[in-house]
Design a protein that fits this description.
Elements: H1 12-37, H2 41-71, H3 83-113, E1 118-119, E2 125-126, H4 134-168, H5 173-177
Antiparallel strand pairs: 1-2
Helix pairs in contact: 1-2, 2-3, 3-4
């Protein structure tokens, strides 16, 4: 079994972790929307705990993914892409991987600076290691908002590239990200 990416294909681990990150992120967004619309405080707190657990999973998986991304060869693109598009797509991919490490840290730092532990289901909590400080919280919140905005722009580019490759160029890029072997 291929454990690392190489110049020809992604490893099954990379493919699986890519989709775990995508669905974890989607779950976090859905839980946030649900939390905004439920009225009971107890339900909101439990949704927040599950959201925190998904954020922790996202952080752990993304830390490995970022390390693997920068230490492995990235597979060659399918077809004959424009070199500028390759540079942009690889830059966006690395940026998204880094953002998935830094944004959960920013959420934790913001809550820690507010004096709140990150509560997880089952009564567990991630401790606050930072001092409670409103100024620090405001700085972290601004940095989070900047990072989240850049992340969403990168995510939009990533999705655009996937849609373009699948529907316009009709190549096998999406099949490759679903774990199938494709010819370059």
């Amino acid at each position: 079994m291929q454990l690392r990416d190489n110049g020809l294909r992604f490893s099954p681990i990379t493919v699986a972790l890519h989709w775990i990150v995508a669905f974890s992120l989607l779950g976090i967004f859905i839980l946030q929307v649900m939390s905004d619309y439920v009225s009971g405080e107890a339900v909101q707190q439990e949704l927040g705990r599950v959201q925190n657990l998904l954020g922790l999973l996202l952080f752990l998986v993304s830390t490995y993914r970022f390390w693997a991304r920068i230490t492995s060869y990235h597979p060659l693109p399918v077809g004959t892409p424009n070199p500028i598009e390759v540079i942009i797509s690889r830059s966006v991919a690395v940026s998204l991987a880094l953002a998935m490490v830094l944004l959960p840290i920013a959420v934790w730092a913001s809550r820690a600076a507010a004096g709140q532990a990150l509560e997880l289901p089952g009564g567990l909590a991630i401790p606050t290691l930072l001092p409670a400080n409103q100024t620090l919280k405001q700085v972290v919140d601004v940095l989070f908002n900047i990072g989240a905005s850049a992340f969403l722009a990168g995510l939009a580019l990533h999705i655009f590239g996937a849609v373009k490759n699948h529907f316009l160029l009709k190549n096998n890029t999406l099949k490759r990200m679903l774990g199938k072997h494709v010819e370059l």
